[in-house]
Each structure stands twice: as structure tokens, then as C-alpha cells.
Amino acid sequence: MEILTNQSVFQYNTFGIDVKTKYLASFKNIEELKELLQSPLIQEEKKLIIGGGSNVLFTKNYEGVILVNKITGIDIVEENEEHVLVKVGAGENWHEFVMWSINNQYAGIENLSLIPGSVGASPMQNIGAYGVEIKDVFHQLEAVEIKTGNTQVFNHKECAFGYRESVFKNVLKDQFVITSVTYKLNKKPVYNISYGAIKQQLEENNVEDLSIKEVANAVIQIRQSKLPDPQKIGNAGSFFKNPIVSQAKFEELKQKFPEIAHYLLPDSTVKLAAGWLIDNLGWKGKRVNNHGVHSKQALVLVNYGGSSGEDIYNLSEDIIASVKEAYGVELEREVNIY
Questions:
Q1: 284 Cβ partners below 8 Å, 6+ apart?
Q2: Which of 67, 227, 268, 284 has the fewest Cβ atoms surrounding its Cβ within 10 A?
Q3: Active site includes 238?
Q4: Does residue 82 share a domain with residue 43?
Q5: Could you list the mean pLDDT of each consecutive 10-residue stretch along the chain, which spans 338 residues?
Q6: CATH number for the domain including 291?
Q7: Which domain, by its residues, includes 45?
Q8: How many domains does the chain have?
Q9: Which of 101, 164, 165, 333 is catalytic?
Q10: Among this protein's residues, is 8 annotated catalytic?
Q11: What is the CATH number of the domain that holds 112?
Q12: Is residue 218 domain-resident?
């Protein structure tokens, strides 16, 4: 276990931003993590935990220590006729875990196929896609408190899940390192194919016998058709959250923009499609030097190579201001800015 100094973070963020961190180290188990947290060299430094680096934008050098979570392992801890509890190391690749679940006929996360990042980020962000969120399959997680080195278990309620939100993004931000997540998956699938284009894609694929594998394949096809591969073009997936507005605000907008994409929520509020709002203002495909808005998905900001995090951040500021002026709606970033 080595603590490196003045290291580039280029390979640790999917935007491909080449800035440096004061210190860099990785850990493969809880013992190594605790040893790092007790190291006199970095004990008083601010700390950032990185998994897949798929939800961060570095706008400058990081004046602290970046700890790379490499804890792996997938274990069945409990099961009955209907469900299985699966404990997963926070450093596992999220999509690979989804594929493992599908190969073992465990349902519940097939709609979340091909989301970039690590397992540890899934409850922190309450990641979601096509009508499914992590909170729907979450059982509990284990995390190490940075200040004390103590391990703590968080249940569903204690995580305070919201839309792309959890207690670890606000009240407890930067206070814990998630080391494992336990999910409650189904042995008998309950399909969720009404959201987005899944049903249409299944029809195009001529699927007659529905299965979680077919749903996952459809989701993967949809995502690949409109989202850039971070291995080829720097990006962090969806950059903005879908804004939620009151029924009155929605009615006002619908008068001006009859085609506005939206989803009615159970509490009578309305979720607007941020991608539609941005696209309708002509941002999709717009390029500024070596960065811009992806040509197939207006929610995704991209680094074609060599752009700075500040360039991409400034572009996001321009988009937020544009949406605010046109619709009176404030867009919120999904990506964490450093």
C-alpha cells in the first residue's frame, strides 16, 4: 500500500480531465482503508473517494487525497423462495454486477444495465434509469467513518434516498467511505418495461418470451444508441437532473410548449425531461473547441480530448442560464464538481 504524491487523475475520471491530486492511494479491503485513514501523512487532508470516477468533474487540481476504492467480491448472504440478499464490494463495476445478477437469474436491476461507475456510488447517487432506482432493491450498506475509522451499517431509512440523492450527498457528505452494499433481488421477475423506449425496443427485437436478459439487452441497445462510450469520448453520463415542478408551473409551461416531455409523479408534481428542455433550445450537438453537448443526447456533456474541467463547467453554466431564461426552471447538476 503506497501513498503517491502529485499524481495525475486522468485515468480516474471518465471525463478524462488531466489535473493532479496532492496525494493518491488505493485500498482493496477495510483494513487497508483504515490504515490509510490513520496515516499521519494524509490524516488531516481533505479526502475524496473514487470508484469508477463516472460522476465527477475536476475543474482544478485536488488539494487533498484521493482514495481509490478497489474492494471487490459478490456474496449471497441470505435467500428464500422469493428473494436473495447479495452483498457486493463497493469497488465492483456496476454493470458487471448487473450482468452477474442476470446470469444467475436474479431480477430487479436489469433496467439499470450499462450505467457507468462502481457499486459504491449506486446508493450514494440513488442511481436510476427506465423507472427503476437503487432504493427499490436496496437492503443495507456498510461504511467506514473517516473521522473515527469505525464501521457502521446503514439501513434503507437511514440512507434517506431521494431523486439522485441520499444522506451521503448532503448531511453526511465526505464523512463515510462505503465499503459494501447489500441488495434484495427477486427470484421471480416483476418486469418494468413501460418507461422510456424499452417496450418499443423489445418489439423491434421480436421478443416473444420476456426475460430479464431480454430487458437488459433492450436497455443496453437504447443506451448505446444515444450515449457515448467514456472509453472513446470523455463524459459522465447524464450531467443534469430532471427538474421537478409544481402542477401549476407545468400547466404554465405546457401552454407555451405543448410538446414538453414530462412524467406525472404520485405526489401530483411533474418531472420534466431535462434533455428535452436543453434540446429544444438548440444545444444538442453544439461544440465549443474540444468539448460540447453530445449529438444524440442533450443531457450529456462531452470532452472530445484536451478540454479542461473548467471549460465543461462553464458550458454547463451557460446551459443552466439558458434553461432558466426560457422556462423559468433551474437545472441542477447530477455530476459532482471539484
A1: 278, 293, 294, 295, 296, 297, 298
A2: 268
A3: yes
A4: no
A5: 94 96 98 96 94 94 97 97 97 97 98 95 94 96 96 97 92 95 96 86 92 96 92 94 96 96 93 97 96 96 96 98 98 95
A6: 3.90.78.10
A7: 4-69
A8: 3
A9: 164
A10: no
A11: 3.30.465.10
A12: no
